[in-house]
Every structure is written in structure tokens, then in C-alpha cells.
Design brief:
With 1019 residues, the chain is mainly alpha-helical. Helix content is 60%, strand content 5%. It is found in: Nucleus.
Length: 1019
């Protein structure tokens, strides 16, 4: 029998109520002094009831939501669970220990941080029962039905968010709960690692999760009510309680133990992420009193400025203005501005303003706010941060970095976000410490710190020494940042992508500071890292793509600021690389020793953008920099920079500097100043010039540079308008690079460009006459045929089939493999893919068995049946896949036929082969799904350039000419008959042999000499 909604709710409520009643309650207990006190007494079946509640909370979907909601209504958390936990004073007693752990287990479930939107979506997907809801089965009311179905679930989930915030407040009221958690952790962590059982490990994980959950609960926003406003500062009070209960010291001690860090690295990184969340590193070192006075003065100035702008006079008593409109009815305006004669502007002011869409804010934007901390909180966070900087990079971040590179958290973006934030935070903190030590170490510390602490922190060189972060700030760390950006872009997780971009930017800033250091070792490290960045051609184009892909409706303005700042530092590093490497370098990496027993799991998918080992390649740093700089010179990039510049009154001077520098690069370095000849851009420039000219405050250096650039562009536009008035029309339209060059250079540029690119056709007969000397045209047929063999002819051989398709250039290497594999699977070519995977595995095994130091040989792919032969020779998609996984085509001539085959070159390392196998297998199991269109939209016909004709061998041609002249002289002077007959006989043999090979293409002079048996040399 199916239960309706009301019956289900009543029965569930009764069951949970009975279980909660059986947990225990408060009773009046008489003390020894005769006084009576209310104390909590657990029930006889308390432990069994706790287990029953846990079983209900393990359910998924709507039932779990309902049980959590009922427990909140019954106040089970603060009325039962906290008292039971505090009553367990003897943790070495088995029963009390089990009771305490059972309470903590329920608390962990009730405080677990979950995304409400994701939670409601999962529930609605699972819930198919529509009983109890007034459903309209009309197809047109589908949206109405979905809304009705969501309402009860969303209301309960929103109440659970309030419940978690209250749980956090209840624990702070009973601070002994945190002390109890510390005692439990200390007990189980005191067991030697080798002697811990699986149950001990699970208990430690449970307790750490509880500490993490409390920190992850978001405080309610600030309110005018004083009681509610106190709730908004609960997070920092909780951190102080952790410090007083020695929990933070325990977390820091775990960082120094390698085994403990590896077991609980994700939980520990979550804990420190929530501790430092929303606190800028510079807030740890400011003088709080001075900062408070400065902020109060700033707020007072803003209030006075607003008060001065208010107009207290009623506009009814100002009179009205009658505006005569010759094209329509007259207008009456009640504006004071119209009295001054500016009637048109007054009309514009009273027009209805367009609705401005709310600018989206992501999670990182909410953390940018500058906060003034309590002195106790500041000291606590500062000491914790310095300890983490000293010990956190040793094991914790290295362990997580390795797992992220191996792709273990590709499906958990939250771990990527926490890792990115923590590394970025402490790299920035290190730079602040270094700058503070260089300038004045005492002024960087708060006034509340003692003199001994100041000396200790200022003299501790290890805190900002590069050795601390060297294992994180290396080439692999930068490649990991690129990898995370690529993954988050594919999943369209824009808020998480913001964290990854900031992480990459802080890496670049660290390299920039290293390059400007006085230490020779740090300069060398910076040069090496800059060279690695320049050599990664696949990753160089990611940052220009991020700038171009910005969309105002999906990305926040803070994200745009971060991307533009990253692009600024990125181009600065490339410039430094060009200055330090003025010439083209030949890079060669020695092949490392082979590691035996290497498994597939040890090869991570980031190998696809690693350089091939033992392979020489030239790097022209100047050409690379110019290529990347030109990637920013387009209309979309300029448009996105203008979007940020429109916020010139709100953004800081650094952002204005980044925009101005990019404009100078586009206009002067790329010589595309006409890119800014657009009406919308000029309107923004006009507003900025008006504000900068009317302001009474002194402009900053960045603002002065922006003003100079705008005036320079306006002067350029004015000069162009005088020469070509048609540019007035061009101001209204978008322009690409070709259009910009036409505007700057006139139509002569287009004519010259077309002449340069136009193909020239030459008649073959005229070409032959021009190439052959006039004297040689009069020779006999015998020698004329010899000359014909040297003239270029059309190739008559059957050429090898070439790859007819290619993937589009904006795809990265794994995506290209995914597109090709998806097409082949759809065509039923799975056996061919499995055969290629087996072949690559066999090559890897053969190389691993080879002796150390032996150079790997090329492996020829041998087909086993006719299907494999046709696939290798004529299937363009298979051939495209072979090119992507580093196969190389070869050909040779046998019996007048061209035979082709594919090889695996010896210079391709085993890591690349295994990475190719893994990617093919991944996309066979989970086919590549493009965000838009089909996989066939991502391939295109490959443009094959015609082969250039080989230059003529002028030296050999001259030798033949001299030989013929010598023969003529010999015939004229009358040589002996014997010599003449012998010569005629040889010539006849030459003619016969030439007739046989007349149809062969590419027949060289050496082959003619060999076949005739007589070498042609001048006498």
C-alpha cells in the first residue's frame, strides 16, 4: 500500500521523536553540599538510539533532509548530543569512549558542508513520487509543476543552512566540547603509526572532519541588530577557541609527520583553507590602530561628499523651463540645469535609464575585502601562518601536488581550489616577508607583538628563503597550474577557474621577484623557470585565450582583473627571457635512466605537454614573444580591456597600469593604433579625460600614463581624419588586423599585399626555352635527349596517400585524441584502436627489457590482416590518430613500387606512449562530448602545400654543354674513324637506354651514367 505525504511525515516524526526521547534528559541531582543542580543523565539505551539515528542519517535523498530537519526542530544537537559528549569525562572507559565517538559521528553528519543547489538537484532527480502535490498535467504548465515540486525541498534545505550556523554557535557557548575533541584526537594520535588499526585511522579521520566542518560553516551576514551582528564574527572566535584548546598546534604538528600528512592531506588542506579564508596576507602585518583611524576617516570623507551632493531645495520652487522643439511638441522641464541653458542635457537626464544587469561575483571576489582583525585574532593567524610557511611545503603541499599531477582529484574541483588558494596565499605571504625584511622588518609587524617576536621574525631568513617553496615553485608546479586551468575551462567552472588563474599569477610574480633579486642563485633559478615557460608552446596561448573568452554574463569583473594581471606579468616574463637569451638556443635534454617495474599509474596525463627527451629543437625567444604579443592584438581583447577600464573609478592603480601597458603594446609594439578607432572606445576615453581634467586630486603615475596614451590616440585619430574623412564611418564598425592596417597605410597596403601573395603562372614551353642555352638547342637528337632528362617533368609516380584531415588548432592534445577516438568508435573501428594500444604496450615492454644506456630503435608497425593494412594506408582518420600519438610515416621503393609503412621512432619516450594508450582507453570508455555541436565539427580538411620544385643542377648542365662543344670540335677536325665509330656506338647505346627509361620520373644523371656503362666527362 502506497503511503501519502501526510502519513509519511507523521510516522517519521513519531519515530524520530521517540528515539530522541530515549537518549536521556536533564534531572535534578543533589550535590554533597545539599544544593540541587540540573544534570543530564543518558538513558539506558542511549548508545543504541544514537546508532539508530545514524542509520536514518545514512539514507539519501528526501528522507535524510527530513530527518535532519526534525533533529533541528527537536534541538537534539544542543539538548542531547553536547551534554552526552561532555558527560564522557573518562575517555579510557570503553562505554564512555563509544558514547563520545557516537555523538561525534552524528555531529559530523549534521554539520557536513553541502552545496544547497547541488543537494536539491540530486533530490529532485531521485524523487519520482508526486503524491501530495497538486500537479497540473497540462504540458504548458511544466515549469509551474517543477516550481511546486521544488518549493518544500528548497525551504527545508535553506533551514538546514541556518541550523548549521546555530550548531556552530552552540559549540562556542560550550567551549569544553572543543577541548573534548582535542583529548580524543590526542589519545588516538598518540598511538604509534605502525600500531594503529584501521578503526583508529577512521576515528582520527572522523575527528578531523568535525574540526573541518565547524570551520566550513559560513557565518550569517552583518546586520543592524547587535545580537545578530555578533553571529557574523563567530568564525574568528572559533579559531581562537581552537588555539586555546591547542588544536591548531596539533594540526601544525601533523605537518611535520610525513606518514600522517599523506593519510589526511585533503582534510588538513581543507582546515587551513578555512582558517585563512577571507584574510589577506597583508592584514596580518598592519598596525590595527592606525588602520582603524584611516578607515574611519575615509568613511567620514565619503559621507561628507555624499552630503554635499544632496540638493535639499524642493524642485517645485525652482521654476520651470519651456523648451521649444521645432520638430515636435514643446517641452516643459522642471530642472535647475535647464535654467543654465543646458536644456538638451536636462532632457537626457530625465530619460528612463536602461536596466543595468547585476555584475556577477564569484567566490574569490568575496575574499578581496580588506578586513581589520581583532588584535588577538591577528596574532593567532600570524603565528599560524608563519608556522605553516615553515612546515607546510615539506610534506603536505608536495603530497597534494603529486596527486593532482596524477589526476586523482580531477573530478573533485574543490580540492584544486583549496590547493590553489593555499599555495597562492603563502607565496604572497613570503613575498611580503621578503619585502618587509628588505625595507624595515619592524614596521611590517603589528604593535601588539613583543620585541623578541619582532627580532625572531625579522632575523628568520628561512621564512622567505626560496628553498622552502622550491619543491612547489618549479616547472611541474607551473605545468600543474596550466593543467588545472585547462580542466576547469573544459568543465566551465568559472568560479573555480578564478582560483587557478590567481595561483598561476602568483607563480609568475614569484619568478619576477626572483629575477630582480641580488642573489645569483635566485637569478639563475628565475632564468631557468622563464626558459621553461617559453619552451611550453602549447601553454603559451592559454592566457591570450582566457582574455578573449571573457564573457560579462558568466564571468565576474574580478576574474577579468585577475586574467589581465596574469597576462601583464606573463608578458613581462617573456620580455625578460628575450633580454637574457638574445640568440636562438639549441635545447637538448639527456635521457634519464630507465626505471624498472614502471606501472601505468606512475605515468600521469600531463606528459602530453612535456618535451620529448633526447631531442634537439631550436627556440627563438624573440619570435616566440612577438607571436604571443600579437595574440593580444585583436578586437575582442581590446573590448574586454575596455570593459575593465570602464570601472576606472573603482579599480586600483595596478589594474589601470595593466590596461595601459597592454594598450601601449598593441598600439606601439604591434603598430596597430587604429585598433582603438572605434566610437564606443572613444566615448570611454572621453569620460576618463573629463574626470581626470576636472579632479582636484593629484593623479597617480598609472593614471598619468593612461591620460598620456588617450591623448596620443586622439591626436592620431585627428590626424587620420584630416587625411581620410571616411574614417568617420569606420568608427562605427568592428575591425580586424587587416582592416586596421588598411586604415593606417591606405589601400596601397592591400594592393602590395595582393601582389606579393598572387601566384605567378609561367608557360612550360617558355620556361624550357628560357632555361636551355641557345647553343644547346642546335645540337643533335642524341644529345637533346640527354638534356631532356635534366628538364623538370610532371611526376608520374603514384604518390603516397597523405592525411586528409586535421583537428582544429584551438583543441589541446587530449581533446584532439578524444575527437578522433569518438569518430573511430562511431565507425566501428574499435578493433583497430585495441591493436594500436597492444602494439604500443609491446614497444614499451621491449624498451624496458633493453640494456641500460642502449639507444632505443625505431619500431616498424606490421599489420596482421587486410583490414589493418587498409586502415594504415587509406583511412584518413586512422592516419590522423597515428600522427597525434607520434607515429611517423616512411616509404621505400621495391620492384618499381612505392611501399609505405609506419614506425614508432626511438626518440619518443615510454611516458608519451603510455600516456597515449591511457588517453585512448579513457575516451573509449567515456567518449569525448563537445560542449557545442558534434565531434565532426572539430576536424577539418587538411591543406596540403604543393611540393617545391628542386633547383636545377647548374654545374652538371654546364659540364654537358662543355662536353658537347668539345665533341663538335673533334668532329670538325676529323678524328680517326675508330674513335668516331666507337663514339657513335656509345651514343646509340645511350639512346636505346634512354628510350627504355623515358617514362620514369626523377631519373638522375648518375642513373644514366650507370646504365650506359660510360661516364660523361669533358675531354
Amino acid at each position: 500500500m502506497k503511503m501519502d505525504k501526510a502519513t509519511y511525515n507523521d510516522s517519521l516524526r513519531d519515530v524520530i521523536f521517540n528515539i530522541c526521547n530515549a537518549l536521556g534528559g536533564f534531572e535534578a541531582v543533589q550535590k554533597k553540599d545539599g544544593s540541587r543542580r540540573q544534570m543530564y543523565q543518558p538513558g539506558d539505551e542511549c548508545l543504541a538510539c544514537l546508532k539508530d539515528l545514524k542509520e536514518y542519517l545514512r539514507l539519501e535523498g528526501q528522507v535524510k533532509i527530513d530527518v535532519l530537519h526534525l533533529l533541528y526542530n527537536f534541538e537534539t544537537f544542543n539538548s542531547d548530543l553536547i551534554p552526552i559528549l561532555l558527560n564522557c569525562t573518562n575517555l579510557h572507559d570503553k562505554r564512555q569512549n563509544r558514547l563520545a565517538l557516537a555523538c561525534v559521528e552524528l555531529m559530523v553528519i549534521m554539520t557536513w558542508p553541502e552545496d544547497p543547489n547541488e543537494q536539491s538537484r540530486e533530490i529532485l532527480e531521485r524523487e519520482n513520487d508526486e503524491s501530495g502535490i497538486d500537479i497540473d498535467y497540462n504540458e504548458n504548465n511544466e515549469e509551474h509543476n517543477n516550481k511546486k515540486r521544488k518549493e518544500p525541498t528548497l525551504s527545508k534545505i535553506s533551514e538546514l543552512l541556518t541550523a548549521r550556523s546555530n550548531y556552530k554557535f552552540y559549540i562556542l557557548k560550550k567551549s569544553t566540547v572543543i577541548q573534548q575533541i582535542y583529548l580524543l584526537l590526542d589519545k588516538y594520535l598518540g598511538i604509534v603509526t605502525k600500531e594503529r588499526t584501521e578503526r583508529d585511522q577512521n576515528i582520527i579521520r572522523l575527528l578531523l572532519n568535525f574540526c573541518r566542518n565547524l570551520l566550513a560553516i559560513v557565518d550569517p551576514p552583518n546586520s543592524e541588530s547587535l545580537s545578530k551582528n555578533k553571529r557574523s564574527r563567530v568564525h574568528y572566535d572559533l579559531i581562537l577557541e581552537y588555539k586555546n584548546a591547542r588544536l591548531i598546534d596539533l594540526f601544525l604538528n601533523l605537518l611535520t609527520n610525513k606518514n600522517d600528512v599523506i593519510d589526511w592531506d585533503v582534510i588538513l588542506i581543507d582546515i587551513f583553507y578555512h582558517i585563512f579564508l577571507g584574510v589577506n596576507p597583508n592584514c596580518l602585518f598592519i598596525d590595527i590602530k592606525r588602520e582603524t583611524i584611516w578607515k574611519a576617516q575615509k568613511l567620514l570623507n565619503e559621507e561628507m561628499a555624499k552630503k554635499g551632493k544632496l540638493n535639499n531645495v524642493n524642485p517645485h520652487y525652482k521654476g520651470s523651463v519651456w523648451i521649444i522643439n521645432p520638430d515636435g511638441p514643446d517641452l516643459v522641464v522642471h530642472k535647475q540645469k535647464a535654467l543654465k541653458g543646458d536644456g538638451l542635457q536636462a532632457l537626457d537626464d530625465i530619460k528612463r535609464k536602461k536596466y543595468e544587469r547585476t555584475k556577477p561575483l564569484d567566490e574569490f571576489d568575496k575574499l578581496r575585502k580588506h578586513q581589520i582583525l581583532n588584535p588577538n585574532v591577528q596574532d593567532c593567524l600570524k603565528s599560524t601562518a608563519l608556522s605553516f610557511l615553515e612546515n607546510g611545503f615539506k610534506f603536505l603541499l608536495r603530497s597534494l601536488k603529486k596527486d593532482l599531477i596524477n589526476g586523482e582529484y580531477d573530478e573533485i574541483p574543490q580540492t584544486m581550489v583549496h590547493y590553489s588558494y593555499i599555495v597562492r596565499y603563502f607565496l604572497e605571504l613570503r613575498l611580503l616577508l621578503k619585502q618587509g625584511n628588505t625595507i624595515d622588518p619592524d614596521c611590517m609587524l603589528s604593535s601588539s607583538s613583543s620585541i623578541d617576536d619582532r627580532r625572531k621574525e625579522s632575523n628568520s631568513k628561512n621564512l622567505y628563503d626560496f628553498e622552502i617553496i622550491s619543491k612547489i615553485m618549479d616547472g611541474e608546479g607551473i605545468l600543474l597550474a596550466y593543467r588545472m586551468i585547462r580542466l576547469l575551462r573544459e568543465k566551465k567552472l568559472w568560479s573555480e577557474l578564478h582560483f587557478a588563474v590567481e595561483y598561476l599569477r602568483q607563480n609568475f610574480l614569484t619568478i619576477k621577484v626572483l629575477a630582480s633579486s641580488d642573489d645569483i642563485d635566485e637569478i639563475w633559478i628565475a632564468n631557468e623557470l622563464q626558459s621553461e615557460i617559453c619552451q611550453e608552446s602549447l601553454n603559451l596561448e592559454i592566457i591570450p585565450e582566457l582574455v578573449r573568452e571573457y564573457k560579462s554574463h558568466s564571468h565576474s569583473i574580478g576574474y577579468l582583473r585577475s586574467v589581465i594581471a596574469t597576462a601583464h606579468v606573463f608578458l613581462h616574463l617573456l620580455e625578460n627571457c628575450v633580454k637574457s637569451n638574445k640568440y636562438v638556443e639549441t635545447c637538448k635534454k639527456s635521457r634519464p635512466r630507465k626505471k624498472k617495474n614502471r606501472t601505468t599509474k606512475e605515468t600521469f596525463d600531463s606528459d602530453y605537454y612535456e618535451k620529448s627527451e633526447n631531442e634537439e629543437h631550436n627556440i627563438n625567444y624573440k619570435a616566440t614573444f612577438e607571436k604571443i604579443e600579437n595574440k593580444f592584438a585583436n578586437e575582442i581583447t581590446v573590448k574586454n580591456y575596455i570593459i575593465l577600464l570602464e570601472e576606472y573609478q573603482e579599480i586600483d592603480s595596478e589594474s589601470i597600469k595593466h590596461v595601459t601597458m597592454m594598450f601601449f603594446r598593441i598600439a606601439k609594439h604591434c603598430q596597430l593604433e587604429a585598433m582603438f578607432f572605434k566610437l564606443s572606445i572613444m566615448e570611454v576615453f572621453n569620460r576618463i579625460l573629463k574626470d581626470y581634467s576636472s579632479t582636484k586630486q593629484r593623479l597617480s603615475h598609472s593614471q598619468e600614463n593612461l591620460k598620456i596614451f588617450i591623448e596620443w590616440i586622439v591626436n592620431k585619430l585627428t590626424a587620420q581624419l584630416e587625411k581620410n574623412p571616411l574614417i568617420y564611418i569606420e568608427l562605427l564598425f568592428p575591425k580586424n588586423v587587416t582592416d586596421v592596417k588598411l586604415l593606417q597605410n591606405g589601400y596601397i597596403y592591400e594592393i602590395e599585399n595582393k601582389k606579393r601573395l598572387r601566384p605567378h603562372k609561367v608557360d612550360s614551353a617558355d620556361a624550357k626555352e628560357a632555361e636551355m642555352p641557345h647553343e644547346l638547342q642546335k645540337q643533335s637528337k642524341n644529345y637533346d635527349k640527354i638534356l631532356k632528362t635534366r628538364n623538370p617533368r610532371k611526376f608520374r609516380k603514384k604518390h603516397l596517400n597523405t592525411v586528409e584531415f586535421e583537428c582544429k588548432s584551438f583543441l589541446d592534445w587530449p581533446s584532439k585524441i578524444g575527437v578522433v577516438v569518438a569518430i573511430l568508435v562511431n565507425e566501428g573501428k574499435l578493433p583497430i584502436l585495441q591493436w594500436l594500444q597492444t602494439t604500443m604496450h609491446m614497444v614499451v615492454r621491449k624498451r624496458s627489457k633493453a640494456a641500460d644506456g642502449q639507444e632505443p630503435l625505431d619500431y616498424i608497425i606490421k599489420y596482421e590482416n587486410e583490414e589493418q593494412r587498409k586502415a594504415l594506408n587509406s583511412d584518413p582518420i586512422i592516419r590522423l590518430l597515428l600522427e597525434l600519438i607520434s607515429y611517423v610515416p616512411k616509404s621505400e621503393e621495391k620492384d618499381g613500387r612505392i611501399e609505405q609503412y609506419w614506425i614508432i621512432p626511438g626518440y619518443v619516450p615510454e611516458q608519451d606512449l603510455l600516456a597515449s594508450v591511457n588517453w585512448i582507453q579513457n575516451y573509449v570508455e567515456e567518449p569525448y562530448k563537445p560542449s557545442e555541436g558534434t565531434v565532426f565539427d572539430f576536424i577539418q580538411e587538411k591543406k596540403i602545400e604543393p611540393q617545391k620544385r628542386k633547383p636545377r643542377n647548374k654545374r652538371k648542365k654546364k659540364e654537358v654543354e662543355i662536353e658537347l662543344q668539345q665533341n663538335e670540335k673533334m668532329d670538325d677536325t676529323g678524328k680517326s674513324e675508330k674513335y668516331s665509330s666507337k663514339r657513335t656506338k656509345c651514343d646509340t647505346n645511350d639512346i636505346d637506354e634512354l628510350d627504355k627509361v623515358q617514362d620514369k620520373s626523377g631519373f638522375t644523371e648518375k642513373e644514366i651514367e650507370t646504365s650506359s656503362g660510360k661516364k660523361i666527362t669533358p675531354d
